Amino acid sequence: MRYFTHLFQIIKVGYLFSRCEIPDNFLPKDNKRLLNKLLNYNKKKKKTFSSTLESLGPAYIKLGQFLATRPDIIGSKFAKELANLQDDLPKFDKKISEEIIESEFNTNIQNVFAEFDAPIAAASIAQVHTGKLSDNQKVAVKIVRPNIEENFNK
């Protein structure tokens, strides 16, 4: 059964990459040519390389973040595109963050924070909120994305 799970994942990744422009240096020439021939029918809507990695989940986002630092491998065009994976990912709802805090501290959020603001930044693993503790000390709070472990292991 595990074999089919991995096979499905490989097919899914191949399909999604077929829908985006692949950096010239990302695959060996023969592999890229073969991939483009096999999946050439799928030209409907080209997605960006970064949005493809983003749709595949946190492990692929981490790969994209690494590749963004290596224009010598993927070229400057793609490195710039992947730079948005560093800190420009969709934020999850503030209410979810509040529920996570309440669950972790086993108390109401008002017992921990005098103020708890909307997220100011989000990345592949977590997002950051600002706030004030009950004693008015300003803090930055990093909240790990819900279900990150399951999503990372997919």
Account of the protein in words:
With 154 residues, this protein is α+β, with helices and mostly antiparallel strands. The chain has two domains: 2-86, no CATH class; 94-147. The chain has nine helices and three strands. It has helices at residues 2-18, 29-38, 49-56, 58-68, 71-74, 76-82, 84-87, 94-105, 148-153, and strands at 113-122, 126-133, 138-144. Strands 1-2-3 form a three-stranded antiparallel sheet, with helices on one face. β2 and β3 (138-144) form a beta hairpin. α3 (49-56) packs antiparallel against α4. It is elongated. The relative contact order is 0.11.
What form results from the Cα inertia axes?
Answer: elongated
Count of spatially separate domains: 2
Residues in helices, as a percent range = 40-55%
Q: Which percent range describes the beta-strand content?
A: 15-25%
Give the mean pLDDT: 79
Radius of gyration: 20 Å
Q: List unreliable stretches of 5+ residues.
A: none
Order of helices and strands: HHHHHHHHEEEH
How far apart are the termini? 14 Å
The count of DSSP E runs of length 2 or more, i.e. the number of strands, is: 3
Characterize the largest beta sheet: strand count, sense, and whether it forms a barrel: 3 strands, antiparallel
| Tally of alpha and pi helices | 9
Give short descriptive properties of this protein.
154 residues, alpha+beta, 2 domains, three-stranded antiparallel β-sheet
